[in-house]
Amino acid sequence: MATTLRRPHYPVPVPVHEDLDPRRSDGVDDETDEVDDVGVRPLGDSGGTVSDEEEEVEDAVAEDIARFEASFRNITQRYRLINRIGEGTFSTVYKAEDLLYDHYQNEWDLDGDKENIDNISSSTLKQTSSRVQKPRYVAIKKIYITSSPLRILNELELLHDLRNSLNVCPLITAFRHHDQVIAVLPYFQHQDFREYYRDFTVDETRVYMHSLFTALSSVHEAGIIHRDIKPTNFLYSPSKQRGVLVDFGLAEREGTDYHHCTCCVEIPDRQRKIQTSVYATTVNAAFQAGQPVPKPTYPNNDQRSSRRANRAGTRGFRAPEVLLKCTAQNSLIDVWSCGIILLTFISKRFPFFHSADDIDAFIELCCIFGKKRM
Ligand SMILES: Nc1ncnc2c1ncn2[C@@H]1O[C@H](COP(=O)(O)OP(=O)(O)OP(=O)(O)O)[C@@H](O)[C@H]1O
Ligand SMILES: [Mg+2]
Ligand SMILES: [Zn+2]
């Protein structure tokens, strides 16, 4: 069975960053704004924040890291940047060592709990201090400055709301320096999807999907739609059989973009609408006058405003209602994307759908799932 990342239930919110102020403890003159002093729940038994390995870094990445360190005030006093681990559409993600780990409560880190207990017992036995600690790793998500402030705030707020959620990577904290915002998350050790999807057995697929659905159900329970479910946003460790959902950059609260849509109309009402449409009336009139039935036509110059709906997501994973610009989308769009991941495991093809635009994507879906000839 999949391991869910259980977070202990606290009856009252746990205060965070109240123990030690780095400015007092080590004289750091920190002019960086903390965007959201958020409390976080433990990441459960995820592991990954403690590790001995230190990887090799390419020259170009080292230069990028140096530029980032130089541009973001005081970041080097808090974190030691190690490597670039992700470059997405909206951000660059770095692996870093948390240098001030000891100065804060770290409820997000169950590895920490384990090690602290070990240290306490060994220190009582050997009268040694607990200073011999392994480095603690975090993932620093540098959100591109081209993202709108509202979008950045939305991502941080939703992550904060989801801090109790199973299998969701919690936000530790966030900082701003000028127009640059960084989100700090526990580093979660995982394997690239392309390395394992072909080899997964049915049982392994079941465990993966269980873990993914656990994450999704806690997100949906909180009334949030992720909107970008895909393998790169679900960090999974096949050896530990655990995964966490990341990247709430496109997520939204259910109902935010919701408007009435014809697909919500009951079938008899929809049929009545079709029967009383301009085209149906024209066809009827022609039929009764014994004239040939006109073919449907389209206005040359359509004055109506084009239909607007949230299309956020990744190609190949968008649900049909997203492709069709349905204005009444709900959390089911995420379930569709999970289905595409399952299809990838079953078919051993990734990406399964790969069309350039929404029309082609829809035709691909019709070819596979369609029941009538179009
Ligand atoms: N907590 C984490 N631990 C380890 N790696 C992470 C973590 N968070 C993100 N990453 C890595 O960074 C990548 C990009 O992160 P994320 O999806 O949050 O950014 P993004 O810019 O929105 O990406 P994209 O546009 O590709 O979806 C992830 O696919 C993953 O490889
Ligand atoms: Mg992503
Ligand atoms: Zn609709």
From TrEMBL:
EC numbers for this chain: 2.7.11.1
Any one GO BP annotation for this protein: cell division
UniProt entry tagged with the keyword ATP-binding: yes
Compositional bias annotation for Basic and acidic residues: 16-27
PROSITE patterns given in the database record: PROTEIN_KINASE_DOM (PS50011), PROTEIN_KINASE_ST (PS00108)
Region of interest (Disordered), residue spans: 1-56, 290-313
One GO cellular component term: nucleus
Gene Ontology terms for molecular function: ATP binding; protein serine/threonine kinase activity
Composition bias, Acidic residues: 28-37
Domain Protein kinase: 79-374
Keywords: ATP-binding, Cell cycle, Cell division, Kinase, Nucleotide-binding, Serine/threonine-protein kinase, Transferase
InterPro entries reported for this sequence: Kinase-like_dom_sf (IPR011009), Prot_kinase_dom (IPR000719), Ser/Thr_kinase_AS (IPR008271)
Name under which the protein is recorded: non-specific serine/threonine protein kinase
Organism (species): Friedmanniomyces endolithicus
Underlying gene: CDC7_3
